[in-house]
Amino acid sequence: METLERLPDILTIVLASGLLIQEVIHRISGIDILIIQNKDWKEVVVSILVVALVITLLKRLKNIDNKFDKVIGNHLGIVEVLNPHENVNLVDLIMSNKAIKILTLSGSTTARLGDDNVKDMLKNNKKTSIQILLGNPYSDAIKNRYDSDEPDTCTGIGGISNKLIMLQRIKNSLTPAIAKKLDVRVFDNYPTISVLQADKDIYSSVYAYRLRGTDCPIVHAEKDTPYGDFLTKHYDGVCDASMPLEQWIIKYNVKI
Q: In the CATH hierarchy, which top-level class contains the domain 81-251?
């Protein structure tokens, strides 16, 4: 495979060398080795050489472009951009990191926390702190998002209420010491970027018009980098403007 990729380079070197040798021989002896049976092959060789050169140059430009993208990505702190449907496994992140932070409108990222085996894992969780920020289904900003911007396939704001109730039930099932490690908060505003942070790794995606969060590419960045700092500032701003889940339950008289 590598040989095939290098074929244009090899052809360029061989043909250029052949033309150079031909010119030297022609100047010394007057013999044209590229004329065989009265047919001039020089034009054919030159044509092939031009094509090989063009392919080589295009490949070089692509390599330069890729290196430029990599340099820019490294400078900003972007590690990679993942396919929208490449799942970031929340359970694995909880088991292998000390601090998890989640900012999401509907809580689709947190759905697996309702699984029985995951609940059991959380009951024995002594090392990982988890903070979850979810949208307030009763706020004007979230209602407007779901009325105007969400796709028709969206389950609606009722799904957010169900997630919040589920999370409070999970907290109620934990011992007080472990329940402190699960901090759930509710925000009234409409952030347009979701965030999942696991220690130094930050995953984010944009909420696009009439597209679900899972329709958008996932940007994997690192903490303490230009893009990581931007996401951290975004997350902290939403967190500062949010309320504890217990306060939300009392305010809206939600039955658990």
A: alpha beta
By the 10 Å C-beta count (0-12 exposed, 13-18 middle, 19+ buried), 124 is classed as exposed
The letter for the amino acid at 152 is D
Reported residue count of the chain is: 256
Residue at 135: amino acid letter: G
Helix 116-123 with 158-173: angle, nearest 10 deg:
40
Dihedral angle sign, alpha carbons of residues 116, 184, 238, 135: positive
Tell me the CB-side half-sphere exposure of residue 111, using CA atoms within 13 A: 9
Q: Among residues 82, 88, 133, which one has the least CA distance to residue 106?
A: 133
List the pLDDT tens digit at each of the 256 positions of the chain: 445 456 566 655 665 566 566 666 666 666 665 554 444 555 665 566 566 666 666 666 555 545 545 545 567 889 988 988 787 888 899 989 999 999 998 877 776 776 777 778 888 888 899 999 999 999 999 998 888 877 665 667 888 999 999 999 999 999 999 999 999 999 999 999 999 999 999 999 998 888 776 788 999 999 999 999 999 999 999 999 999 999 999 999 999 8
